[in-house]
């Protein structure tokens, strides 16, 4: 048995948690019930531990979880107080359930810590919002929850504490260090080292695996850097930039043009970026000082100066491509370093005195205070198109309806109905239906056993002794065995608890089955009528909107660079669309789906590449200086933007985007523009990369991405 548990739970995280929650719940319950003699405080001591220890998923180390528990204690007091006061009538309790149910769930957009607390906080209102209406018992109830939280925080630190999880910054450090090794090998290859190319081919797959480990689908939700604060935003930005840099390394592998006129300057830039990236990885691991943005900025300046001193007139565009790719690599390296410095708490230096609220760009959040960032996240998701808004409204409606029905039917244990909704309601109707059978079968099986125990008329001391054993098994059964076992054992736990608080008979088990069945019916019906497709339906719309916004970014960028048009709000709209698309993708990953026909991660990369590339170009290239080739650039941009629009249209129709058509024959480009030829090369490299991104959307199903296909090409080339 122990070997089986270790195979299912290698680090014993589930077992440790079950032991801690059981110890706290039983200690608080027995202390209040048998020592203090308070029948009002005892259930709150027990269910407070269950709510914040079993139903909640709090990320971080034991110390961080303990601090979080203490910090949310005032919120728990407020929820229990409101539930106690609003239980004066069914309508008041249901209205409070709807408002608080929505608010508690919706604030989860602020980050994984808030998401993990949502279910437990819901229970803290559900428990007191049922009759009897007894405001006089409020002090005892608050004392019970206070005891539970303090004991739980102490247990996190002292009772078989969990090993500290691997910090996200360490995962990022592994990916960044592997990327630095690839950059160094590429620089050696360009410098004539015959082993550089083979080393790069061997290193890129390893770097790809490290980059894949940063993907949200490969991380538990509570470990993702998804909060609204600067630190997590910056780490997420750094991870996305690292993936883009790795893709650029592969591009440069195939673009090692021995005749490129800026080859020597590109090698110097590449070695500097490799050093900066390596220093970034060392700092993330805690092995070095914070990387310096000025180093890569100076290298970019030197590279631009070298290009300025080299006349490109009369040269074919192919001889300028290597420099364009190297320059984009340098710009993205600078972005990576800036993001890591922001994560360390240092805001970026802004070149002009514009007000903080007017400073645009990728790092706009670095200039705002943490409360303003959380408010911004709440405000941008307060739309029916946000999956967070949809999920919060769905759950709030289900809980409020269930509270009204339980009150109308005068159910003696109506909170079981709402607890069932928290258990079975999922983000899609199909997911909700899949939970019904195990939940109902487990509840019936547990109720039969509970009824037999009550019919036997066992001594209450037997119930007190059996409670911790059954509770440990129940809390561990869900993650290890599934929902059915969890429901069966939790039914026994409830029976053992109530048998020690009030006189009960075998009909308690009958009431449990009826309440769970009622909660399941309400959950299914609400899930069927309120956004029944869950993340899958919204993901098509959100990614389609993102790609359509990216198409506008492409057109606007070329208009600004070629003929000096005034920048519009295409970049701002695309950033917002990208945030909603990322949120939809995160929800989609939490659901069960058949194998996807397209790579959702590559789809998002295609949009982000358009946005980040445009930001770098607008920031670094002169506007309006390419009038002699405005027609050629506009035609090329329109072709790429049209491909984005076509993919967006198919996504909006819930269809798989088609592979983009073959690249049209290149137009004849002027070769007498002087230094502007370098700007043209930069724009063409960006547009060519975007077209390749679209081709990778249908290259492999999720969870593969565009890098795997290109890495395979690297390995094939090495052999």
From TrEMBL:
Annotated ranges, domain Integral membrane bound transporter: 404-526
Q: Region entry Disordered: which residue ranges?
A: 212-233, 652-673
Identify the taxonomic lineage of the organism of origin: Bacteria, Bacillati, Actinomycetota, Actinomycetes, Micromonosporales
Q: Which InterPro entries match?
A: Memb_transporter_dom
Q: What's the protein's topology in the membrane? A: Multi-pass membrane protein
Transmembrane ranges, per UniProt, are 18-36, 66-85, 91-109, 411-429, 436-455, 461-481, 512-531
**PANTHER family linked to this entry:** MULTIDRUG RESISTANCE PROTEIN MDTO, P-HYDROXYBENZOIC ACID EFFLUX PUMP SUBUNIT-RELATED
UniProt protein name: FUSC family protein
Pfam families given for it? FUSC_2
Q: Which UniProt keywords apply?
A: Cell membrane, Membrane, Transmembrane, Transmembrane helix
Where is it localised? Cell membrane
Family from the record: Belongs to the YccS/YhfK family.
